[in-house]
Amino acid sequence: MKTETALTTSFGIGWTPSYVPGFRAQIDYYNIDIEGVIQPLGGTNILTQCLTNGLLCGDIHRDSLGSLWIQPTAYIIDPLVNNGSLLERGVDVDLSYSFDIGSLGKIHTALVGTYIDKYEVEPIANTPSTAYNCVGLYGSTCSSFGTGAGIPVFRWRNTLRTTWSTPWSGLDVSLAWRYFAAVKTEQLSGNPNLTAGTGTIANGGISNTDAFLSSRSYFDLTAAMKLGDKVTLRLGVNNIFDKDPPIVGGSTLPGPPAGNGNTFPQVYDSLGRYIFGELIAQF
Question: Number of H helices and number of E strands within the chain?
Fold first, then answer.
């Protein structure tokens, strides 16, 4: 097994105009090209490559009934391999603005977001026919840890946080908006490496409920107060409106840890509204 190698290109521009005091903008472009990715190809991907490109068919072992799940003699060989490539390209955005509101204190607002233009996986090195682009998609291949991002590949996601620094005893109050763009199942991508044999919504091969996961917005409220030079009290509520996560069918959801409980708990609030409090003391 060899080490992975990556060629990373990035550049950014920062802007703090003197005629808009308190405003700052930072925009960064990145292009990450990883070769020799260490990963299992995934059973679904192996089946798809055999069906669409005639590759990896020797790794598939069916039982005497021609099945892969009826008898224990059926299996797919899927070890870790030093193969394939991953290309991710996008833009990171970081904007902030602070201003005084007189005797009422100060407002600070900041937007941090990422736009992904390309997330292309080539499971088999130097074989473009095996490649697929997962931007805006989710599913058993694009959202698995073995051959994908581990979560839905959102084209855009952001956090917008506004903090009110009040004039009262070091009290700060923050309201945050977390946003995740809509995604669709990889089965609707049109790429045969992701859609082979899945059918359509019309013929029932793809569930209506799984076809698209709508965008999600979560709002969080936090208050922090200094009780002393080294003691801070924080109280807050995440997901104020108790927004449910999108529910995904078992045939579309990748296995744990990416998919769990018929959703993606790493990105969506799977437990609903969350109330917390903490006392921080420094010694």
Answer: 3, 17
CA 193 – CA 270 distance, rounded (Å): 30
Interior angle at CA 199, CA 259 and CA 211, nearest 5:
45
User: In order of start, what are the domains of the chain with their CATH numbers?
Assistant: 5-40+80-281 (2.40.170.20)
DSSP string, 181-204: --EEEGGGS--HHHHTT---TTTT
Residues 189-238: tens digit of each pLDDT: 888 888 755 555 645 567 778 889 999 999 999 999 988 788 889 999 99
CB under 8 A, 24+ apart: contacts of 194-197: 194/48, 194/132, 194/137, 194/139, 194/141, 194/142, 196/47, 196/48, 196/51, 196/52, 197/48, 197/51
Mean pLDDT (the chain, rounded): 89
Distance of CA 267 to the CA centre of its chain: 6
Provide the sign of the torsion angle of the four alpha carbons 61, 64, 68, 73, taken in this order.
negative
60-85 pLDDT tens trace: 999 888 888 788 888 888 888 787 88
151-180 per-position pLDDT tens digit: 999 999 999 999 999 998 789 999 999 999
